[in-house]
């Protein structure tokens, strides 16, 4: 019995260390939003648990816990130049990227009224286990949106005007932070994010990049032929 308990303990330790029991990413399409639960202090504001369960966010809140980023806007305009987050709802007439919900957010200044105050980037982040067979991550996004994994910026490849993908194979099977950050350096320039998904497919370069590569190879072959002809 003692040996069995030891074996189970070692197995549990191994599973935890390899991340097999780690939490999985959730609500990657924002469809888990539930605006009817967890309203904010005034109509048009939602709690984060209601608007974007599973996600953390960046920014500076106001005094008393009622700052612009402590809640998520819904059908309420943002006033000022501080960071903000908004849940877009197709059924309310908002322009979304897919499904019913998308999330939009903008970076801004620490003070809603002082353009000389510190610049505060807005971002969404989630830390969990990246599936073992992952080769890429795909997402829908608009605006100056940057993906960072454990703080390392990844290059997004455009598959269509609003569809992006990045090579995530180096992080497969690891617990990692995915952070989608608004890289705008002026206020009121929002990004919209939706449809994040892990994929077993490799990232396919943009057609323009493929033609550029082929053109470069053709140029090298031409140089080699001319050198041979000159010998």
List key phrases describing it:
3 helices, 5-stranded antiparallel sheet, 15 strands, 6-stranded antiparallel sheet, alpha+beta, 231 residues, globular, Jelly Rolls
What is the element layout, followed by pairings?
Blueprint: H1 2-18, E1 45-46, H2 48-51, E2 56-57, E3 72-73, E4 84-89, E5 101-106, E6 108-109, E7 119-120, E8 123-129, E9 136-142, E10 145-149, E11 152-154, E12 157-160, E13 163-167, E14 175-182, E15 191-199, H3 207-230
Antiparallel strand pairs: 1-3, 2-8, 4-5, 5-15, 6-7, 8-14, 9-13, 9-15, 10-11, 10-14, 12-13
* Backbone shape: globular
What would you say the CATH architecture is? Sandwich
Structural class: alpha+beta
| Overall helicity | 10-25%
Provide the CATH topology. Jelly Rolls
DSSP helix count?
A: 3
Number of domains: 1
Rg calc = 23 Å
In round numbers, the mean pLDDT is 81
Percentage of residues in DSSP E strands = 25-35%
As laid out across the biggest beta sheet, the strand order is 4-5-15-9-13-12
Low-confidence stretches: 4-19, 61-68, 208-220
Any overview of this molecule?
- The chain has one domain: Jelly Rolls (Sandwich).
- The chain is 19% helix and 30% strand.
- It is built from three helices and 15 strands.
- It has a six-stranded antiparallel β-sheet, with no helix packed on it. It has a five-stranded antiparallel β-sheet with strand order 2-8-14-10-11, with no helix packed on it.
- The chain is globular, with a radius of gyration of 23 Å.
- The chain starts with a helix and ends with a helix.
- Mean pLDDT is 81; it is low at 4-19, 61-68 and 208-220.
């Amino acid at each position: 019995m003692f040996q069995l308990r030891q074996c189970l303990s070692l197995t549990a330790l191994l599973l935890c260390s390899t991340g097999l029991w780690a939490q999985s990413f959730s609500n990657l399409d924002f469809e888990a939003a539930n605006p009817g639960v967890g309203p904010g202090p005034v109509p048009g504001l939602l709690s984060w648990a209601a608007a974007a369960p599973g996600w953390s966010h960046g920014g500076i809140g106001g005094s008393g816990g009622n700052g612009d980023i402590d809640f998520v806007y819904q059908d309420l305009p943002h006033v000022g130049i501080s960071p903000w987050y908004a849940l877009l709802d197709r059924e309310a007439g908002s322009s979304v990227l897919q499904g019913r919900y998308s999330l939009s957010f903008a970076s801004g200044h620490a003070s809603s009224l002082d353009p000389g105050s510190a610049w505060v980037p807005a971002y969404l982040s989630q830390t969990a286990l990246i599936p073992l067979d992952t080769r890429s991550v795909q997402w829908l996004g608009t605006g100056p949106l940057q993906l960072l994994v454990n703080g390392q910026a990844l290059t997004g490849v455009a598959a269509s005007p609003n569809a992006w993908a990045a090579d995530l194979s180096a992080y497969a099977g690891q617990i990692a932070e995915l952070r989608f950050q608004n890289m705008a350096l002026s206020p009121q320039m929002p990004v919209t994010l939706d449809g994040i998904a892990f994929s077993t497919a490799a990232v396919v370069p943009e057609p323009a990049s493929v033609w550029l590569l082929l053109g470069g190879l053709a140029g090298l072959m031409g140089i080699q032929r001319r050198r041979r002809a000159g010998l």
